[in-house]
Amino acid sequence: MSVRPDGIGVGGCFVVVERRRVVVSVLLVVALLAALAVALMFGEETLWPRQLVDVLSGGGTRGDRTLLLDLRANRVIVAALAGAALGVAGAVMQSVTRNPLASPDILGISAGASAGAVIVIVANDGVLDGKSWAAPVGAIVGGLVIAAGIAAFSVGMDPLRLVLAGIALSSLCGAIVTYLVAIADPEVAAHAYIWLSASLAGREAEHIWPVATALVPAIAVIVPLSRRASMLSLGAVRAHSLGVPVARTERGLLLVSVLLTSLATAATGPIGFVAFVAPQITARLTRTASPPLVVSGLTGATLVLCADAAARTILPWSAPIGAVTSALGAPILIYFLWRAVRV
């Protein structure tokens, strides 16, 4: 093995290592661990670091174990996994479309997943006991339908028209959801509204597995394709000349993006703007032309955990996490649209 300033060589292979990306990744891991600790410790009742360490090491009082392991741990794990999935999904979509305005929530993928999940919730009268797979499947189908609609109308679209198409499809999905909730039983409608607000309250182990089982194979697929994804930022013609099978790579990556978005939405409800903001933050931190995919996942997980912690501790009222992320992300979207118009 040979080590050079720009990478590591093993046998006949040489892997390029970007020092800044490595440093940013390490700092984001530290930030993610800090956000995990804060999310576990703070809430209506505070657990101090010593209590946290005691519980995680197998000790602690019964009350502390119940509070941490039964009430907060599932919520925090779901938040981190959903944020990572949305961060990766947004980075994939922005890399493939070569458009910083493209993200699953802005283009309507999240809205389609929400509509699919609400259809399942209403059809089952809000009771999914023994059917933990039903909402994720409905979300995937809804996300794929919207993705197919975008693919059918996105040929030759400029960024602004692509965003407008996404807004139109999101409005259509919103109308479907509003109609279903209006005709549903009040208890079922209340259940759907809580889910649509992207509240992480009451998250359990059954909400963890759909996202976790999607995220692990998705990372396994994305890591080998990350170099191809970065080449796509050079344009389809240039990427093809460098040996990248453009069409196949784009289809595979977009499918992964839709699946990650749909399953994250099924687990938490529609968390707005994380898939849009996380890749942009990552690209600026790493100073790369396109957002690194896995690093964007770290950013997304950190953002969702921080937003959830803020919703539970800093704000003077209890707010769902979707409201917090939307309030932070909407001004950033407006800025990008304003800059696109000026250009």
From TrEMBL:
Localization annotation: Cell membrane
Main location: membrane
Ranges in coiled-coil conformation: none
Entry's transmembrane regions: 22-42, 76-94, 106-127, 133-155, 162-184, 253-277, 289-307, 314-338
GO terms classed as biological process: siderophore-iron import into cell
Entry GO CC: plasma membrane
Keywords: Cell membrane, Membrane, Transmembrane, Transmembrane helix, Transport
Bilayer topology term: Multi-pass membrane protein
Domain of life: Bacteria
MF terms in GO: transmembrane transporter activity
CDD domains attached to this UniProt entry: TM_ABC_iron-siderophores_like
Family from the record: Belongs to the binding-protein-dependent transport system permease family. FecCD subfamily.
Descriptive protein name: Putative ABC transporter permease protein
Organism: Gordonia amarae NBRC 15530
